[in-house]
Amino acid sequence: MKKIKLLVIMILSLVLLSACSIFGFVLPGNDGNSSATQDRYAATEIRDYKGVRLDPSVGPRDNSIKGIQNVDIGTYSLKVDGLVDKSLSLSYDDVLALTSYEKLITLHCVEGWDATVLWKGVLLKDVIELAAAKNTANTVIFHCVDGYTTSMPLQTILDKDMLLAYSSNGITLPPSLGFPFIVVAEDKLGYKWARWVSEIELSDNAYYQGYWEMNGYDNTADVPNSRK
pTM value? Predict the structure, then answer.
């Protein structure tokens, strides 16, 4: 009987610890972060920015559809195609040569946790302008190395000056976060934050559904006001 009680206690403890990581609650260490959170920071990663505590670039767990992708930057190219006047194939360095911007933006995961990160990258608007979107284009579809896709209205991307980021908290974007590029989909839930982006397609299909959207997730993916 004592062994059974001990086993039940151990199982409940594991459940509670799992809930802590999934929903963003932590068991505090000396600075208010759990030791597990501390371990996720890279050695050179910025942890504070203008008085704001930054979260680690690496999230509490990977929820990608095929696991973390390790992209060979030597053979990588970013395609910009679809309803454009000039289809493009950009190298990593081509993208980095564009004007860079920094933004402090919080990623809100549909699972309940969030992460505030200092992002650096280029405006998606600037990348799209290189290819000259046709007047009929109203949607941007993001294709990723692992086969994942998602989309957003072109006007939303332009209005919010959304970034295609290659750096997080002052370090090169880690593979787990989407190296070489992640879409910083401000005010959108995490499944719109496409990682390992390999193609930006301009489309006139305003109802395009990506991987999770086809599985019942809301296509607008707006972050609820209660979480902003």
Answer: 0.84
